[in-house]
Amino acid sequence: MKDFTDLLYEVDDALSLETCDNIIERFQDDNTKAPPKEQILELKESIDLYISDSKKWNDIDEILLQSLTEHFEKYTKQIARAIGRPLWINEVMDSGYTIKQYQEADYVNWHQDTGFTRDGWNRMLSCIWYLNTIEEGGETEFAFEYKIKPLTGKLIMFPATWNFPYKHLKPIRQSKYIITSFFLTRER
């Protein structure tokens, strides 16, 4: 492994333009979206919608699962090449999908995605799809001085570990829409 970017997966067009536009339109029309329940104002400000428990979002949930499954396999091969050995993984599942809107004044400060669930699952990988292209601002910035520009349909994956702190820069003159998920793992 040369540097941390070897563990960062980026792929354009993981979702089609039509799918991204459809998700944004449906998100805007969904009256159940809201600021996160456990919002910490020092960390972030956004409007969120968890869709994986909603039947009206089943079609999108399935599209996201297919995208994630396809790219997870490619990403694990990339990691194996970077670290020089196969990636050993126990039981794995995704955490479901949350659509997030960051308006012009919204922010996400430095953080890392390490976390555990009450039933013993821990976050292994962070996944972000960008639903729209941001012309100015809005990049995802990693602490190792690497920025990713939001492009419609792009997917990124990276370790949900202490050494991958990142933040979302404020979008300028437009809202930024993303979908987040995590790969969770636990010992069998």
CATH homologous superfamily label? q2cbj1_9rhob like domain
Number of domains: 1
Strand fraction: 25-35%
Mean of pLDDT: 90
How many beta-strand runs? 12
**Measured on Cα atoms, how large is the radius of gyration?**
16 Å
Largest sheet: 7 strands, antiparallel
Spatial gap, N to C terminus: 29 Å
Q: Would you give the CATH topology? A: Jelly Rolls
Which structural category do the helix and sheet elements fall into?
alpha+beta
CATH architecture assignment = Sandwich
| Helix count, DSSP H or I runs of 4 or more residues | 2
Shape, principal axes of CA atoms: globular
Helical content band: 10-25%
Which blocks of ≥5 consecutive residues have pLDDT under 50? none
Question: What's the CATH class label?
Answer: Mainly Beta
Helix and strand run: EHEEHEEEEEEEEE
List the helices and strands and how they pair.
Blueprint: E1 9-11, H1 17-29, E2 44-45, E3 47-50, H2 58-83, E4 91-94, E5 98-102, E6 107-111, E7 122-130, E8 140-142, E9 146-148, E10 155-159, E11 166-168, E12 176-186
Antiparallel strand pairs: 1-10, 2-6, 3-5, 4-12, 5-12, 6-11, 7-10, 7-12, 8-9, 8-11
